[in-house]
Amino acid sequence: MTVLIPSYEPDARLIGLIHQLIEVDTPHIVIVDDGSGDDYRSIFATAKQLGCTVLTHEHNMGKGRALKTGFQYIKKLGRRDGVICADSDGQHLPADIMRIADAVDKLPHHIVLGSRQFTGEVPLRSRFGNTATRKIYKFTTGSAIHDTQTGLRGFSNDMLDWLCSIPGDRFEYEMNMLLKARSAGYRLKEIPIETVYLEENKSSHFRPLADSIAVYLPILKFSGASLLSAAIDYGMLLLIHLLTTNLLLAVVGARVCSSLVNYTMNRRFVFTDEGQSQVRRSMPKYFALVLLILTLNYGLMYGLNEVAHIPLLISKLITEGVLFLFSYWTQRKFVYHETTNKKPADC
User: Fold this and answer.
1) CA distance 175 to 112
2) Where are the domains of the chain?
3) Hey, which of 82, 118, 203, 263 would disulfide with 89, CB 3.0 to 4.6 Å?
4) What are the GtrA/DPMS transmembrane domain coordinates in residue numbering (predicted)?
5) Burial tier of 325 (Cβ tally within 10 Å: 0-12, 13-18, 19+)
6) Are strands 110-116 and 53-57 parallel, antiparallel or unpaired?
7) What's the predicted TM-score (pTM) here?
8) Fold of 2-206
């Protein structure tokens, strides 16, 4: 296996981790010095003496960029074994790293996540951050992941092209990876690991405000596209109905406008790295679903507004509530379902 360790201003725990890995296995270890500076050269020199490959950024570029530098290097080597990413601060035990490596060998086309269980004494900021991100991720995607922020992740070698194509240079890169995995044809598998926090996690370089915004930005964009489309749908429905008093025309016109905006927003701002082949696969299914939902939407709206004489806005709210779960389930199951077709990309 290859162990990839992005590292910024490490301490002796990095050397300790290397010794422990060598004791349990003979992995190929690649370390990316993310602009740590002269004060840390001795640590990286020791890592080289222990047989590690050390790649260096002249300036700090962020964890995401460090990971992609490592992926690019491993890809050029032409190795065919799995790649395990681990942090340099002692949070990931060698036994857990080996368990992730074993899972990668058995689960092709999976991102294997070392899932911390957050038992015992966990720093408040770490517990709160992970809980918030987990709930927001589930609300946005409909998928439950226990540990969305884990740095212990495993990948099969054929995923390197895709990993290099994911946007993001800092901590948001790892969230983007989770958000884009399904559309790229990869599944997520969590393997429970030990939760290790040393010195209240003081060694973490996570910036609570700036990096939290960056991590949540992909989720906010994903949710924002849906909210904007919903607002357009409501606004166009009321406007067209006011001008024409024709319910069918209002429902169809509003849904056409909102669906075009939603699909375009997702393609351009949320899932910006999808290739043309992905568009060709998803677009017909997406608009076939739009047509089905449109038919159901009009039927319910007609029954509520025209037959039961319920005000238009209230009828719209009831209709959207009834169809929401069906629409969401259908999109996850048929429109953006997992596929093994992947488009290579350069780092």
Assistant:
1) 14
2) 2-206, 218-335
3) 203
4) 221-335
5) exposed
6) unpaired
7) 0.65
8) Spore Coat Polysaccharide Biosynthesis Protein SpsA; Chain A (3.90.550)
Element (H, E) at 4: strand 2-7
User: What SS3 state is found at 221?
Assistant: helix
In the chain, the amino acid numbered 119 is: T
CB 327 within 8 A of CB 146: no
In terms of Cα–Cα distance, which of 272, 155, 275, 134 is closest to 215? 134
Which residues pair with residue 182 across a beta bridge? none
Token pair listed for 328: 């969401």
Residues linked to residue 31 through DSSP beta bridges, in sequence order: 5, 54
Question: Tokens for 192?
Answer: 């429970």
Write out pLDDT tens, residues 220-275: 676 677 778 888 988 998 899 899 989 889 888 888 888 888 777 766 665 554 44
**pLDDT 10s digits, 267-313:** 666 555 444 445 556 667 767 877 888 888 888 888 998 899 898 88
Burial zone of 204 (CB within 10 Å; 0-12 exposed, 13-18 middle, 19+ buried): middle
In the DSSP assignment, the letter for residue 146 is S
Tokens of 88: 């340099």
8 A C-beta contact, residue 183 and residue 271: yes
| Beta bridge partners of residue 190, listed in sequence order | 113
Closest by CA to 294, choosing from 236, 223, 212, 221, is 236
What is d(CA 318, CA 225) in angstroms, rounded to the nearest whole number? Answer: 21
Cβ distance 13 to 198 under 8 Å? yes
CB atoms inside a 10 Å sphere around CB 120? 9
- Calculate the CA 110 to chain-centre distance: 13
Closest CA to 136 of 229, 261, 221: 221
Q: Residue 53's beta-bridge partner residues? A: 30
